[in-house]
Amino acid sequence: xxxxxxxxxxxxxxxxxxxxxxxxxxxxxxxxxxxxxxxxxxxxxxxxxxxxxxxxxxxxxxxxxxxxxxxxxxxxxxxxxxxxxxxxxxxxxxxxxxxxxxxxxxxxxxxxxxxxxxxxxxxxxxxxxxxxxxxxxxxxxxxxxxxxxxxxxxxxxxxxxxxxxxxxxxxxxxxxxxx
Length: 179
Prior knowledge:
By secondary structure, this protein is mainly α. The protein contains three helices and no strands.
């Protein structure tokens, strides 16, 4: 049947190899239905391939957009990290400079403190020497005075009460001088 239709339309019939009887019967019974199924399958296959290509393009486009967005976010994140690194480096440099300044100030303070200690020590030594000299002079004067009083007492033969009073007065004077 199909061969007759193709010939009447002016188309040349397809050259097919000779079919066996069973094949001819199948062709007669199922020929048109088989041809329709093949046509439908071919159409479905073409539609499926077009849909796959369309989905593939859409997926590729979405993937490209996602990659682009990812790259932008990664670039933004990298810039933020670089900014944080720069800020961190600036803070570290500032802290290092502060540490160096504090070390310098500490060194100057230590030097000044040592000089102050030397000055105070020298001042205390001088004051100690002055006090020692003053006490030595006063002690020498008291000894001289005691010897004078003692010799005066022994020459004048003053009584013992006067001598006791004199010694008490000297002791009081010595205590007052020491304070």
